[in-house]
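Notes from the 1:1 (GR / supervisor)

We went over the backlog. Supervisor wanted to see one worked example end to end before approving the batch request, so GR pasted a single chain during the call. The sequence is below; no edits were made to it. Supervisor asked that the structure be written out right there so they could see what the output format looks like.
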Amino acid sequence: MRSTAMNQSTDLNMKSDELYREEIYSDLRLGTIRMLIPVNEHGEEDVTRARRFVGQAQVMTPAGPMPISFDLDAKDLAEAVRGFGAAAEQALQETARELEEYRRKAASGIVVPGAEDVSRLAGGELGGGLIKP
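Structure output shown during the call:
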């Protein structure tokens, strides 16, 4: 079997000291909260590590539904529920900024077929055919 850089650097072994049990809570309306409970290798709760909370929601966009996922800074489920809206709004704003940046980068890298020929006809140097903003 041929070895690649990807499988040389990827460790596919689970770490027994980083295991979590997952519980999912939903209001059946807006989203879900995943509570990740740390456990030891025997499946018993590991009280030396903190629980983690992850919010998930789906936002409608012109391109269709877009899932968003975000960490909730909370000590318990009640605190996670209270913080869900603000964290979802922040994640949505960050996602919108990232999408706009991707869109901007994609637009600045559009290759126009035949742009080199037009450049030559106008007496310009050979270019890469990129439209620059």
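Supervisor's comment: Residues 31 and 57 are 4 Å apart (CA to CA).
Batch request approved.
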